[in-house]
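Hi support team,

I submitted a single chain yesterday and got back a structure, but I'm not sure I'm reading the token output correctly. Could someone confirm the output below corresponds to the sequence I sent? I've pasted both exactly as they appear in my results page.

Thanks,
R.
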Amino acid sequence: MKLVTATKAKQIASVSRVTLYRWRKMGLVKEYKTPTGKIRYDESEICKMSGMMEEKIALYVRVSSNKQKFDAQRQMERLKIWCNDKNLVPSHEFIEIASGLNPKRKILNKILDMVNDGKITKLVVEHKDRLTRFGFEFLERYCNERGCEIIIIDKSEIKEDIVKDLIDIIICFSSKLYGKRTSKNKALKFVTEDMKKYD
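Hi R., thanks for writing in. Yes, this is the structure output for that exact sequence:
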């Protein structure tokens, strides 16, 4: 039996420190300690796990309304082209129609469950705000700690969705002040007047 360091084990299996830790906790690989307390791994076990590992790539597309369904299809096509250029083969494709501010999105929550179960190792999206408008760092940490990498292929943002999310925020707060009937009109008026300043 040949023992290797954690660094060498990660290199052999091409995995992160978090994934190696998960393997150990799940009993998939054993750890051995040297007389000085250093952790080592059986190289043959690591090689075996490396052979069992395969990328489970999910593509996620989100648009804010039904009117943007065509844009959702174009988003998905761009993700597929990007994966093809990188020699990646997607195993899952998801399209969701919902606000980026909605924390109860069924498809996104399904994806997070799959990440937790180890069924997704890479999550590819076109823009960061396709996943969430706020708190992306928490979502990224959640995925990374479970062996899933979030890949953002375009760092820019979509102006139309920023406006839509801004309207949703204003409606939420103004409804508490003016009531649900007038809140939407007030929000639209506010955003329209404010956007004119930047045109």
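A quick pointer for reading it: The mean pLDDT is 82. Let us know if anything else looks off.

Best,
Support desk
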